[in-house]
Amino acid sequence: MVAMATIEHETAAVPNCHGGLENLDEEYSYWADDVIDGQIPGDLSGTFLRNGPGRQRIGGQTYGHWFDGDGMLCAFSFVDGRVHFKNRYVQTTKYVEETEAQEIRYRGFGTQLPGGARKNALRQPGNPANTNAVLHGGKLLALWEGGRPWELDPATLDTVGECNYDGQLTRSNVFSPHPKIHRRSGDMFNFGAGMSGIGRRGPKAVMNVFRIGRGGKLFKKGKVPLPTFPFAHDFAISDRYAIFFVNSIVSTAMPDVILGRTSISDQMIFDNDVPMRVIVVDLDTMEEVRTFESGPGAIIHFGNAFEEGNEIVVDGMFASDFDANIGLSDVFNSTRFKAGTYLRYRLNIETGTMSSEQLSETESEFPTFNPRLGGERNAFTYTACNVDNGADSFFNGFQKVSDSDADLVVLPPGYYGSEPIFAPAVGAEAEDRGYVLEVVYNAFEHVSELHVHRGENVGDRVAAVRLPHHIPHQFHGHWHNKVILNEAKGG
Predict the structure, then answer these.
(1) What is the pLDDT of residue 198?
(2) Residues 415-422, mean pLDDT to the nearest whole number
């Protein structure tokens, strides 16, 4: 059963989502007091962080893929019923050099430098630090899966520099944009694909696994052997296990990428002859426990995972192709950004059996949940949705999903949403006692709005705050239950 709530708005000609991809070159810091609907709840206190490409064009040139735009961190601070907004670009080497030159100087996931193979050969992609943000162990990190994280000062959002955890992350270690904070220990786990030497058949692939203590020290590393180099963007953790879905998206011509003939994006395909493999790793030993195999498929983003008896339950957004990459490679002309299907997997550690069921009929992505229940049984998950409302070129709604029900909130045509993040109310005990936060692009006025919905009843929007500018469509966010910015603390 799907219960639907629609926010009403009179529309004439409905603008598409493309205006939300345009640059925001300015950096701001101000109190966002233009509350156009309702009021900010007094029991909502903390910091809502978001990261994504702040610019897709520079000096008349456009990046060749949405994944290549430079990372811009946004912080919404909730203090005594008010909201403070601040944004800062991550001052990566790529950002600094390209800003000074006003031209593209680094390859990317889908961006090639002008000049053909000669100009691109043997050049690594530049790190835009544009995918996610996490605050753990006193370090605020901007993350991108093709390199090491970049650290920012959590009190100012000023860039500190590339983070290598006191040398524990080597130059060859990449660090996924989806680290997981282990509920019981407070430690943070992450991973990155790597190489463990050269064998008879060429480079040997591994999954490097990292464990960072709650004090911010990377104190344990593991290596999980792999038969091939994976396209692995995210993973899940339960209380005892890390779960990796090694999917059917494969590289077809990596030598051509190295020699500069093509981009990484151009040679990534979905291969129906490659099964999806699931590798379960023990969090304490960092050794493989069991491997499962299914038909071809891909899961880009995961929700929660938890254990029930001999089974590990994992929520993920399933795709049967990689067609989404077509739109991502040409964002200003894309007519629709494709999402996935919400599946729940059950992995039996004892028998080796694997099954799945669909939990939502609505096309979905970016699953999130109450962070207090990471690795434990949760009742509710929130996902961004694509709904056919006459203007479904981008995410235009979100839903709250339980085992047996889904409450869907649909934005009016011409409004485009983002990943919904759950923020627990101060002192809350019930899982859904809190608020769902969503940044919405108002394409009619080319501005962004922060929408605040009640967690118990997502159809109840308790507040909407209009910003005087837009925020370019971003990827992922993070909730921290403390106010961290100096400007916001000052009131």
Answers:
(1) 65
(2) 97
* Mean pLDDT (the chain, rounded): 92
Residue 301's domain comprises 2-489
Q: Which two tokens stand for residue 439?
A: 């940044």
For the full predicted model, state whether its pTM sits above 0.70: yes
Residue 181, pLDDT score? 96
CA 267, CA 264: separation in Å to the nearest integer? 6
Structural domain count, the chain: 1
Give the Cα separation of 185 and 367 in Å (integer).
23
pLDDT band at 11 (very low <50, low <70, confident <90, very high): very low
Q: pLDDT band at 491, cuts 50/70/90?
A: low
Question: Is residue 439 over pLDDT 90?
Answer: yes
Q: Give the rounded distance of the alpha carbon of 23 from its chain centre.
A: 20
Q: Residue 163 maps to which CATH number?
A: 2.130.10.10
